[in-house]
Amino acid sequence: MDKALQTMIENIPEKTGKKLEEWFEILKKEKIEKHSVAVKCLKTEYGVTHGFANTIVTLFKEKNDSPEDLVLNQYTGKESLKPIYELLLSIVKNFGEDVVIAPKKGSVSLIRKNQFALIKPATKKRIDLGLKLKGIEVQGSLESSGPFGAMCTHRVQLHNLSDVDNEVIRWLSKAYENSV
Length: 180
Hints:
The protein is α+β, with helices and mostly antiparallel strands. It has seven helices and six strands; from the N terminus they run H-H-H-H-H-H-E-E-E-E-E-E-H. It comes from Litorilituus lipolyticus.
């Protein structure tokens, strides 16, 4: 977890007068679907500053979203990319039973002992497949990590099902094999 976020979470009781779990109970009772409306409610009804209100609502939504909801939200407006995502999952599941599929808000992490790949619908027309392939030079469809930073060493841009070819499967498999 980001250090600044951790500090903010630790300061919630002192700065807001309630523990994080108490705020979660309030939000559960309020039953507000939209993020901005929930933030406004905490600010106007409970006197919480914007930064803390936004953090509380974000953490509440992350805690209460099911993995299916997280994936559904990622592909809302990007439905044409969902078959690419599903193909990648079917390939990875064949690598072994030790693969953990962990949806997050904006991406899906693929983990063995360590995270070895990340699937992110980057635009309405492209999935970025991040791969952890230390010591491998950029080549073929394999690019530098792009938006992934330190987690992934490489990226492959996928626009169509046909982009998930033998080369991509080989790189994905190599990342899996190296993740022990």
